[in-house]
Design goal:
Layout: H1 3-26, H2 36-40, E1 54-57, E2 61-64, E3 67-68, H3 69-75, H4 87-96, H5 102-115, H6 120-128, H7 135-145, H8 151-157, H9 166-192, H10 206-214, H11 220-230, H12 239-249, H13 254-265, H14 273-287, H15 295-307, H16 325-337, H17 342-361, H18 372-381, H19 390-411, H20 424-431
Antiparallel strand pairs: 1-2, 2-3
Helix pairs in contact: 4-5, 5-9, 6-7, 7-9, 7-13, 8-9, 9-10, 9-19, 10-11, 11-19, 12-13, 12-19, 13-19, 14-18, 15-17, 16-18
This protein binds carboxymethyldethia coenzyme *A (CMX).
Carboxymethyldethia coenzyme *A (CMX) binds next to loops.
Length: about 425
Protein backbone atom coordinates (compact mmCIF):
# COMPACT_ATOMS: atom_id res chain seq x y z
CA UNK A 1 0.00 0.00 0.00
CA UNK A 2 1.27 3.48 -0.79
CA UNK A 3 1.60 5.93 2.10
CA UNK A 4 -1.43 7.95 0.92
CA UNK A 5 -3.60 4.86 0.68
CA UNK A 6 -2.45 3.73 4.12
CA UNK A 7 -3.41 7.09 5.64
CA UNK A 8 -6.82 6.83 4.03
CA UNK A 9 -7.27 3.24 5.19
CA UNK A 10 -6.61 4.27 8.80
CA UNK A 11 -9.36 6.90 8.49
CA UNK A 12 -11.76 4.40 6.96
CA UNK A 13 -11.21 1.83 9.68
CA UNK A 14 -11.78 4.47 12.36
CA UNK A 15 -14.94 5.80 10.68
CA UNK A 16 -16.75 2.54 9.87
CA UNK A 17 -18.08 1.86 13.40
CA UNK A 18 -19.89 5.23 13.40
CA UNK A 19 -21.87 4.38 10.28
CA UNK A 20 -22.43 0.81 11.47
CA UNK A 21 -23.77 2.03 14.84
CA UNK A 22 -26.17 4.54 13.25
CA UNK A 23 -27.53 1.80 11.04
CA UNK A 24 -27.76 -0.84 13.73
CA UNK A 25 -29.13 1.17 16.64
CA UNK A 26 -30.81 4.23 15.11
CA UNK A 27 -32.18 3.17 11.74
CA UNK A 28 -35.76 4.04 12.73
CA UNK A 29 -35.00 7.58 13.97
CA UNK A 30 -36.86 10.14 11.78
CA UNK A 31 -34.77 12.80 10.06
CA UNK A 32 -37.26 14.54 7.78
CA UNK A 33 -40.78 14.64 6.42
CA UNK A 34 -41.67 14.83 2.75
CA UNK A 35 -44.53 16.78 1.21
CA UNK A 36 -46.14 16.71 -2.22
CA UNK A 37 -44.46 19.96 -3.26
CA UNK A 38 -41.08 18.34 -2.72
CA UNK A 39 -42.01 15.17 -4.56
CA UNK A 40 -43.16 17.06 -7.66
CA UNK A 41 -40.60 19.82 -7.14
CA UNK A 42 -37.35 17.99 -7.76
CA UNK A 43 -36.88 16.64 -4.20
CA UNK A 44 -35.72 20.06 -2.92
CA UNK A 45 -34.41 20.03 0.63
CA UNK A 46 -35.33 16.41 1.38
CA UNK A 47 -32.60 15.20 3.70
CA UNK A 48 -31.89 11.82 2.22
CA UNK A 49 -28.17 11.48 1.50
CA UNK A 50 -25.02 11.49 3.55
CA UNK A 51 -21.51 12.76 2.88
CA UNK A 52 -18.71 13.96 5.13
CA UNK A 53 -16.69 15.65 2.39
CA UNK A 54 -18.68 18.89 2.28
CA UNK A 55 -21.81 20.53 3.69
CA UNK A 56 -23.82 23.34 2.12
CA UNK A 57 -25.52 25.73 4.51
CA UNK A 58 -28.14 27.90 2.73
CA UNK A 59 -26.92 31.06 4.48
CA UNK A 60 -23.23 30.42 4.87
CA UNK A 61 -22.45 28.44 1.73
CA UNK A 62 -20.12 25.51 1.35
CA UNK A 63 -17.80 24.07 3.99
CA UNK A 64 -15.26 21.55 2.81
CA UNK A 65 -14.50 19.11 5.62
CA UNK A 66 -15.72 21.75 8.07
CA UNK A 67 -13.78 24.69 6.62
CA UNK A 68 -15.26 27.67 4.79
CA UNK A 69 -13.66 28.77 1.52
CA UNK A 70 -11.67 31.63 3.12
CA UNK A 71 -10.42 29.15 5.75
CA UNK A 72 -9.40 26.62 3.08
CA UNK A 73 -7.53 29.31 1.16
CA UNK A 74 -5.82 30.47 4.33
CA UNK A 75 -5.00 27.16 6.04
CA UNK A 76 -3.92 24.87 3.24
CA UNK A 77 -0.25 25.05 2.27
CA UNK A 78 0.35 27.28 -0.72
CA UNK A 79 2.48 26.62 -3.74
CA UNK A 80 5.72 28.58 -3.16
CA UNK A 81 5.45 32.04 -4.72
CA UNK A 82 1.69 31.66 -5.33
CA UNK A 83 -1.46 33.01 -3.72
CA UNK A 84 -3.30 29.71 -3.90
CA UNK A 85 -2.99 26.32 -2.20
CA UNK A 86 -1.96 23.16 -4.00
CA UNK A 87 -4.91 21.34 -5.62
CA UNK A 88 -3.13 18.16 -4.54
CA UNK A 89 -3.14 19.31 -0.90
CA UNK A 90 -6.79 20.17 -1.20
CA UNK A 91 -7.55 16.70 -2.56
CA UNK A 92 -5.65 15.17 0.39
CA UNK A 93 -7.85 17.28 2.66
CA UNK A 94 -11.08 16.17 0.96
CA UNK A 95 -10.02 12.55 1.09
CA UNK A 96 -8.70 12.33 4.64
CA UNK A 97 -10.17 15.35 6.45
CA UNK A 98 -6.68 16.35 7.62
CA UNK A 99 -4.87 19.54 6.68
CA UNK A 100 -1.84 18.29 4.80
CA UNK A 101 1.77 19.19 5.43
CA UNK A 102 4.33 19.45 2.64
CA UNK A 103 5.06 15.70 2.85
CA UNK A 104 1.39 14.80 2.51
CA UNK A 105 1.08 17.06 -0.50
CA UNK A 106 4.10 15.43 -2.09
CA UNK A 107 2.40 12.03 -1.71
CA UNK A 108 -0.48 13.21 -3.87
CA UNK A 109 1.81 15.02 -6.33
CA UNK A 110 3.76 11.77 -6.75
CA UNK A 111 0.61 9.68 -7.12
CA UNK A 112 -0.71 11.95 -9.86
CA UNK A 113 2.69 12.23 -11.55
CA UNK A 114 3.07 8.47 -11.85
CA UNK A 115 -0.45 7.98 -13.23
CA UNK A 116 -0.87 10.90 -15.61
CA UNK A 117 0.06 9.34 -18.95
CA UNK A 118 -3.05 9.19 -21.11
CA UNK A 119 -3.31 6.14 -23.39
CA UNK A 120 -2.90 7.18 -27.05
CA UNK A 121 -6.24 5.59 -28.03
CA UNK A 122 -8.01 8.22 -25.89
CA UNK A 123 -6.53 11.02 -27.99
CA UNK A 124 -7.44 9.07 -31.15
CA UNK A 125 -11.06 8.90 -29.99
CA UNK A 126 -11.15 12.64 -29.21
CA UNK A 127 -9.64 13.42 -32.61
CA UNK A 128 -12.32 11.30 -34.29
CA UNK A 129 -15.15 13.34 -32.74
CA UNK A 130 -16.43 16.12 -35.04
CA UNK A 131 -14.45 19.23 -34.06
CA UNK A 132 -17.59 21.35 -33.67
CA UNK A 133 -18.85 19.02 -30.90
CA UNK A 134 -19.14 20.54 -27.45
CA UNK A 135 -15.94 20.05 -25.42
CA UNK A 136 -18.01 18.45 -22.64
CA UNK A 137 -18.99 15.75 -25.15
CA UNK A 138 -15.31 15.22 -25.90
CA UNK A 139 -14.37 15.03 -22.23
CA UNK A 140 -17.18 12.66 -21.35
CA UNK A 141 -16.35 10.43 -24.35
CA UNK A 142 -12.64 10.42 -23.47
CA UNK A 143 -13.44 9.20 -19.97
CA UNK A 144 -15.88 6.51 -21.00
CA UNK A 145 -13.33 5.30 -23.57
CA UNK A 146 -10.92 4.59 -20.71
CA UNK A 147 -13.44 2.37 -18.89
CA UNK A 148 -11.51 -0.67 -20.11
CA UNK A 149 -8.70 0.42 -17.75
CA UNK A 150 -10.83 -0.03 -14.61
CA UNK A 151 -8.99 -1.82 -11.82
CA UNK A 152 -12.28 -2.17 -9.94
CA UNK A 153 -13.87 -4.17 -12.77
CA UNK A 154 -10.91 -6.57 -13.00
CA UNK A 155 -10.78 -7.16 -9.27
CA UNK A 156 -14.57 -7.45 -8.98
CA UNK A 157 -14.58 -10.11 -11.68
CA UNK A 158 -11.97 -12.03 -9.71
CA UNK A 159 -14.11 -11.95 -6.56
CA UNK A 160 -13.67 -8.90 -4.37
CA UNK A 161 -14.71 -8.67 -0.73
CA UNK A 162 -17.21 -5.85 -0.12
CA UNK A 163 -14.93 -4.43 2.57
CA UNK A 164 -12.27 -3.92 -0.09
CA UNK A 165 -14.41 -2.18 -2.75
CA UNK A 166 -12.89 1.16 -1.81
CA UNK A 167 -9.35 0.02 -2.67
CA UNK A 168 -9.64 -0.48 -6.47
CA UNK A 169 -12.04 2.49 -6.50
CA UNK A 170 -9.22 4.56 -5.05
CA UNK A 171 -6.91 3.21 -7.77
CA UNK A 172 -9.38 4.06 -10.53
CA UNK A 173 -10.02 7.50 -9.05
CA UNK A 174 -6.38 8.48 -8.84
CA UNK A 175 -5.68 7.01 -12.29
CA UNK A 176 -8.50 9.06 -13.75
CA UNK A 177 -7.91 12.32 -11.87
CA UNK A 178 -4.23 12.35 -12.78
CA UNK A 179 -5.22 12.29 -16.45
CA UNK A 180 -8.06 14.81 -16.39
CA UNK A 181 -5.97 18.01 -16.70
CA UNK A 182 -4.02 16.40 -19.56
CA UNK A 183 -7.21 15.44 -21.40
CA UNK A 184 -8.90 18.80 -20.78
CA UNK A 185 -5.88 20.78 -22.04
CA UNK A 186 -5.60 18.44 -25.05
CA UNK A 187 -9.25 19.14 -25.94
CA UNK A 188 -8.64 22.88 -25.60
CA UNK A 189 -5.56 22.92 -27.83
CA UNK A 190 -7.12 20.55 -30.38
CA UNK A 191 -10.41 22.38 -30.66
CA UNK A 192 -9.35 26.00 -30.41
CA UNK A 193 -5.61 26.16 -31.14
CA UNK A 194 -5.39 24.18 -34.38
CA UNK A 195 -4.26 21.05 -32.58
CA UNK A 196 -0.97 22.52 -31.34
CA UNK A 197 -0.89 20.36 -28.23
CA UNK A 198 1.60 21.33 -25.50
CA UNK A 199 3.22 18.36 -23.73
CA UNK A 200 2.89 18.08 -19.99
CA UNK A 201 5.61 19.29 -17.58
CA UNK A 202 7.30 16.79 -15.31
CA UNK A 203 7.03 17.23 -11.55
CA UNK A 204 4.92 20.39 -11.65
CA UNK A 205 1.82 20.80 -9.51
CA UNK A 206 -1.65 20.68 -11.10
CA UNK A 207 -1.96 24.46 -11.41
CA UNK A 208 1.41 25.06 -13.03
CA UNK A 209 1.13 22.09 -15.36
CA UNK A 210 -2.40 22.90 -16.43
CA UNK A 211 -1.56 26.54 -17.20
CA UNK A 212 1.47 25.32 -19.16
CA UNK A 213 -0.54 22.78 -21.19
CA UNK A 214 -3.23 25.38 -21.90
CA UNK A 215 -0.53 27.76 -23.13
CA UNK A 216 -1.54 30.53 -20.72
CA UNK A 217 1.04 32.36 -18.62
CA UNK A 218 0.98 33.35 -14.92
CA UNK A 219 -1.12 33.90 -12.91
CA UNK A 220 -3.26 31.37 -14.81
CA UNK A 221 -1.63 28.67 -12.66
CA UNK A 222 -3.25 30.31 -9.61
CA UNK A 223 -6.51 30.87 -11.49
CA UNK A 224 -6.58 27.15 -12.22
CA UNK A 225 -5.83 26.18 -8.63
CA UNK A 226 -8.59 28.46 -7.35
CA UNK A 227 -10.99 27.24 -10.01
CA UNK A 228 -10.45 23.51 -9.38
CA UNK A 229 -10.71 23.96 -5.61
CA UNK A 230 -13.86 26.09 -5.70
CA UNK A 231 -15.70 23.76 -8.07
CA UNK A 232 -14.71 20.50 -6.39
CA UNK A 233 -17.74 19.72 -4.27
CA UNK A 234 -21.08 21.18 -3.18
CA UNK A 235 -22.40 18.36 -1.00
CA UNK A 236 -24.13 15.42 -2.66
CA UNK A 237 -27.52 16.55 -3.94
CA UNK A 238 -26.50 18.74 -6.88
CA UNK A 239 -27.00 17.21 -10.31
CA UNK A 240 -23.36 16.37 -11.08
CA UNK A 241 -22.38 15.01 -7.65
CA UNK A 242 -25.65 13.17 -7.29
CA UNK A 243 -25.36 11.60 -10.74
CA UNK A 244 -21.82 10.44 -10.03
CA UNK A 245 -22.94 8.98 -6.71
CA UNK A 246 -26.04 7.33 -8.16
CA UNK A 247 -24.20 5.64 -11.01
CA UNK A 248 -21.43 4.49 -8.67
CA UNK A 249 -24.04 3.05 -6.30
CA UNK A 250 -24.75 0.37 -8.91
CA UNK A 251 -21.05 -0.53 -8.54
CA UNK A 252 -20.42 0.96 -11.96
CA UNK A 253 -16.77 1.98 -11.98
CA UNK A 254 -15.32 5.48 -11.75
CA UNK A 255 -15.11 5.91 -15.52
CA UNK A 256 -18.84 5.28 -15.95
CA UNK A 257 -19.63 7.42 -12.91
CA UNK A 258 -17.51 10.46 -13.76
CA UNK A 259 -18.56 10.44 -17.40
CA UNK A 260 -22.20 10.44 -16.23
CA UNK A 261 -21.42 13.16 -13.69
CA UNK A 262 -20.12 15.34 -16.53
CA UNK A 263 -23.22 14.75 -18.62
CA UNK A 264 -25.29 16.18 -15.76
CA UNK A 265 -22.92 19.09 -15.32
CA UNK A 266 -23.34 19.96 -19.01
CA UNK A 267 -26.88 21.29 -18.53
CA UNK A 268 -27.54 25.06 -18.67
CA UNK A 269 -29.22 25.06 -15.26
CA UNK A 270 -26.04 23.59 -13.74
CA UNK A 271 -22.41 23.81 -14.91
CA UNK A 272 -23.12 25.17 -18.38
CA UNK A 273 -24.36 28.37 -16.73
CA UNK A 274 -20.77 29.67 -16.68
CA UNK A 275 -20.66 29.74 -20.48
CA UNK A 276 -24.19 31.14 -20.60
CA UNK A 277 -23.11 34.08 -18.41
CA UNK A 278 -20.39 35.01 -20.90
CA UNK A 279 -22.71 34.49 -23.85
CA UNK A 280 -25.27 36.79 -22.21
CA UNK A 281 -22.68 39.47 -21.39
CA UNK A 282 -21.24 39.32 -24.90
CA UNK A 283 -24.71 39.83 -26.29
CA UNK A 284 -25.17 42.91 -24.10
CA UNK A 285 -21.72 44.19 -25.07
CA UNK A 286 -22.49 43.78 -28.77
CA UNK A 287 -25.76 45.64 -28.35
CA UNK A 288 -23.90 48.41 -26.49
CA UNK A 289 -21.14 48.55 -29.11
CA UNK A 290 -18.57 47.81 -26.38
CA UNK A 291 -19.63 50.76 -24.20
CA UNK A 292 -20.27 50.07 -20.50
CA UNK A 293 -24.04 50.39 -20.03
CA UNK A 294 -25.54 52.70 -17.44
CA UNK A 295 -27.39 51.01 -14.58
CA UNK A 296 -30.71 51.83 -16.25
CA UNK A 297 -29.59 50.33 -19.55
CA UNK A 298 -28.41 47.18 -17.73
CA UNK A 299 -31.71 46.93 -15.87
CA UNK A 300 -33.50 46.99 -19.22
CA UNK A 301 -31.33 44.12 -20.55
CA UNK A 302 -32.12 42.07 -17.45
CA UNK A 303 -35.86 42.72 -17.68
CA UNK A 304 -35.85 41.97 -21.43
CA UNK A 305 -34.23 38.59 -20.72
CA UNK A 306 -36.78 37.76 -18.02
CA UNK A 307 -39.70 38.92 -20.15
CA UNK A 308 -38.53 36.71 -23.02
CA UNK A 309 -38.92 33.74 -20.64
CA UNK A 310 -35.23 33.12 -19.96
CA UNK A 311 -33.39 32.85 -16.66
CA UNK A 312 -30.55 35.22 -15.79
CA UNK A 313 -27.58 32.86 -15.88
CA UNK A 314 -25.30 32.93 -12.87
CA UNK A 315 -28.03 33.98 -10.43
CA UNK A 316 -30.18 31.86 -8.14
CA UNK A 317 -29.55 28.55 -6.46
CA UNK A 318 -31.51 25.51 -5.37
CA UNK A 319 -30.05 25.56 -1.83
CA UNK A 320 -28.15 28.81 -1.24
CA UNK A 321 -30.06 31.84 0.00
CA UNK A 322 -27.13 34.28 0.09
CA UNK A 323 -24.36 35.30 -2.32
CA UNK A 324 -22.33 32.20 -3.09
CA UNK A 325 -18.96 32.31 -1.26
CA UNK A 326 -17.45 30.74 -4.39
CA UNK A 327 -18.60 33.87 -6.19
CA UNK A 328 -17.07 36.03 -3.46
CA UNK A 329 -13.71 34.26 -3.60
CA UNK A 330 -13.53 34.86 -7.33
CA UNK A 331 -14.75 38.42 -6.93
CA UNK A 332 -11.92 39.10 -4.49
CA UNK A 333 -9.43 37.67 -6.95
CA UNK A 334 -10.97 39.80 -9.72
CA UNK A 335 -10.92 42.98 -7.64
CA UNK A 336 -7.23 42.41 -7.06
CA UNK A 337 -6.19 41.34 -10.55
CA UNK A 338 -8.72 42.44 -13.14
CA UNK A 339 -10.85 45.23 -11.75
CA UNK A 340 -10.20 47.37 -14.84
CA UNK A 341 -11.40 44.70 -17.27
CA UNK A 342 -14.61 45.90 -19.01
CA UNK A 343 -16.23 42.47 -18.62
CA UNK A 344 -15.57 42.56 -14.88
CA UNK A 345 -17.31 45.94 -14.84
CA UNK A 346 -20.34 44.31 -16.47
CA UNK A 347 -20.32 41.53 -13.87
CA UNK A 348 -19.90 44.05 -11.10
CA UNK A 349 -22.88 46.01 -12.35
CA UNK A 350 -24.95 42.83 -12.64
CA UNK A 351 -24.16 42.14 -8.98
CA UNK A 352 -25.85 45.46 -8.15
CA UNK A 353 -28.68 45.36 -10.66
CA UNK A 354 -29.94 41.75 -10.86
CA UNK A 355 -30.85 40.85 -7.23
CA UNK A 356 -33.38 43.71 -6.76
CA UNK A 357 -34.96 42.85 -10.11
CA UNK A 358 -35.28 39.16 -9.27
CA UNK A 359 -36.75 40.18 -5.92
CA UNK A 360 -39.22 42.49 -7.65
CA UNK A 361 -40.13 39.74 -10.11
CA UNK A 362 -40.79 37.57 -7.07
CA UNK A 363 -40.08 34.14 -8.53
CA UNK A 364 -36.49 33.17 -7.72
CA UNK A 365 -36.07 32.03 -4.11
CA UNK A 366 -32.49 33.23 -4.19
CA UNK A 367 -31.78 36.44 -6.13
CA UNK A 368 -28.03 36.38 -5.43
CA UNK A 369 -25.16 35.42 -7.76
CA UNK A 370 -23.76 31.89 -7.82
CA UNK A 371 -20.31 30.57 -8.70
CA UNK A 372 -20.94 30.69 -12.45
CA UNK A 373 -21.60 34.40 -12.47
CA UNK A 374 -17.97 35.31 -11.97
CA UNK A 375 -15.90 32.36 -13.16
CA UNK A 376 -16.00 32.91 -16.92
CA UNK A 377 -14.91 36.51 -16.61
CA UNK A 378 -11.60 35.48 -15.05
CA UNK A 379 -10.98 32.94 -17.80
CA UNK A 380 -11.81 35.54 -20.42
CA UNK A 381 -9.44 38.05 -18.89
CA UNK A 382 -6.51 35.64 -19.12
CA UNK A 383 -7.23 34.86 -22.76
CA UNK A 384 -9.34 31.72 -22.50
CA UNK A 385 -12.17 33.31 -24.45
CA UNK A 386 -13.69 30.12 -25.86
CA UNK A 387 -16.50 30.12 -23.36
CA UNK A 388 -17.96 26.76 -24.28
CA UNK A 389 -14.80 25.34 -22.68
CA UNK A 390 -15.59 26.73 -19.23
CA UNK A 391 -17.77 23.83 -18.12
CA UNK A 392 -14.86 21.47 -18.83
CA UNK A 393 -12.85 23.34 -16.19
CA UNK A 394 -15.76 23.01 -13.78
CA UNK A 395 -15.88 19.28 -14.59
CA UNK A 396 -12.18 18.68 -13.88
CA UNK A 397 -12.60 20.37 -10.50
CA UNK A 398 -15.86 18.59 -9.69
CA UNK A 399 -14.22 15.20 -10.30
CA UNK A 400 -11.99 15.79 -7.24
CA UNK A 401 -14.96 15.95 -4.90
CA UNK A 402 -17.06 13.28 -6.57
CA UNK A 403 -14.16 10.80 -6.67
CA UNK A 404 -13.45 11.42 -2.97
CA UNK A 405 -17.15 10.84 -2.25
CA UNK A 406 -17.34 7.63 -4.26
CA UNK A 407 -14.23 6.21 -2.56
CA UNK A 408 -15.81 6.90 0.83
CA UNK A 409 -19.22 5.61 -0.27
CA UNK A 410 -17.56 2.28 -1.13
CA UNK A 411 -15.53 2.32 2.09
CA UNK A 412 -18.65 2.79 4.22
CA UNK A 413 -20.66 0.26 2.24
CA UNK A 414 -23.36 2.66 1.04
CA UNK A 415 -25.85 0.58 -0.92
CA UNK A 416 -27.52 0.86 -4.30
CA UNK A 417 -29.53 4.10 -4.36
CA UNK A 418 -33.20 3.47 -5.02
CA UNK A 419 -35.79 6.08 -3.94
CA UNK A 420 -39.49 5.26 -4.31
CA UNK A 421 -41.82 6.90 -6.80
CA UNK A 422 -45.60 7.30 -6.68
CA UNK A 423 -48.21 7.86 -9.38
CA UNK A 424 -50.21 11.09 -9.75
CA UNK A 425 -53.33 9.08 -8.77
CA UNK A 426 -51.63 8.13 -5.51
CA UNK A 427 -50.59 11.71 -4.77
CA UNK A 428 -54.18 12.89 -5.42
CA UNK A 429 -55.45 10.25 -3.04
CA UNK A 430 -52.93 11.30 -0.37
CA UNK A 431 -54.01 14.92 -0.93
CA UNK A 432 -57.65 13.92 -0.38
CA UNK A 433 -58.72 15.02 -3.87
CA UNK A 434 -62.07 13.43 -4.76
CA UNK A 435 -62.49 12.29 -8.37
N1 LIG B 1 -33.41 34.09 -13.45
C1 LIG B 1 -34.75 34.05 -13.67
N2 LIG B 1 -35.60 33.25 -13.01
C2 LIG B 1 -35.08 32.48 -12.05
C3 LIG B 1 -33.72 32.49 -11.72
C4 LIG B 1 -32.87 33.33 -12.49
N3 LIG B 1 -31.55 33.37 -12.29
N4 LIG B 1 -33.51 31.61 -10.74
C5 LIG B 1 -34.71 31.06 -10.45
N5 LIG B 1 -35.65 31.59 -11.26
C6 LIG B 1 -37.05 31.19 -11.34
C7 LIG B 1 -37.14 29.71 -11.71
O1 LIG B 1 -36.98 29.53 -13.12
C8 LIG B 1 -38.52 29.35 -11.22
O2 LIG B 1 -39.45 29.83 -12.15
P1 LIG B 1 -40.82 29.03 -12.46
O3 LIG B 1 -41.58 29.04 -11.18
O4 LIG B 1 -41.45 29.82 -13.55
O5 LIG B 1 -40.42 27.64 -12.86
C9 LIG B 1 -38.62 30.19 -9.94
O6 LIG B 1 -37.68 31.27 -10.08
C10 LIG B 1 -38.33 29.42 -8.67
O7 LIG B 1 -37.04 28.81 -8.81
P2 LIG B 1 -36.12 28.57 -7.52
O8 LIG B 1 -36.86 27.61 -6.63
O9 LIG B 1 -35.66 29.83 -6.95
O10 LIG B 1 -34.85 27.87 -8.17
P3 LIG B 1 -34.61 26.33 -8.50
O11 LIG B 1 -34.13 25.67 -7.26
O12 LIG B 1 -35.77 25.72 -9.19
O13 LIG B 1 -33.43 26.42 -9.57
C11 LIG B 1 -31.43 27.28 -10.48
C12 LIG B 1 -32.13 26.80 -9.21
C13 LIG B 1 -29.95 27.45 -10.18
C14 LIG B 1 -31.60 26.20 -11.55
C15 LIG B 1 -32.08 28.61 -10.94
O14 LIG B 1 -31.86 29.60 -9.97
C16 LIG B 1 -31.56 29.07 -12.29
O15 LIG B 1 -32.10 28.64 -13.32
N6 LIG B 1 -30.49 29.96 -12.31
C17 LIG B 1 -29.87 30.38 -13.54
C18 LIG B 1 -28.96 29.28 -14.08
C19 LIG B 1 -27.72 29.16 -13.21
O16 LIG B 1 -27.05 30.13 -12.88
N7 LIG B 1 -27.37 27.90 -12.88
C20 LIG B 1 -26.13 27.60 -12.15
C21 LIG B 1 -26.34 27.23 -10.67
C22 LIG B 1 -25.02 26.86 -10.01
C23 LIG B 1 -24.52 25.56 -10.57
O17 LIG B 1 -25.14 24.51 -10.34
O18 LIG B 1 -23.54 25.57 -11.32
Amino acid sequence: MTALKEKLFEKIVAWRPRTARLLKEFSEVKVDEVNIGQIIGGMRDIKSMTTDISYLDPQEGIRFRGLTIPEVLEKLPKVPGSEMPYVEGFFFFLLTGDIPDEKDIQLVVNEFESRKKVPEYVFDVIRAIPIDSHPMTMLSAAIITMQRESVFVKRYENGLNKNDYWDPTYEDSLNLMAKLPEIAAFIYRLKYKNGSVIPSLNNADWGENFAHMMGVSEPYDDVSRLYFILHSDHESGNVSAHTGHLVASALSDIYYSISAMLNGLAGPLHGLANQEVLRWIQDVMNKMGGKIPTEDEMKKFVWDTLKSGHVIPGFGHAVLRKTDPRYMAQREFSLKHLHEDPIFKYVDMLYKVVPPILLEQGKAKNPWPNVDSQSGVIQWHYGVKEYDFYTVLFGVGRALGVCANIIWARALGYPLERPKSLTTDMLEEIAGIKK
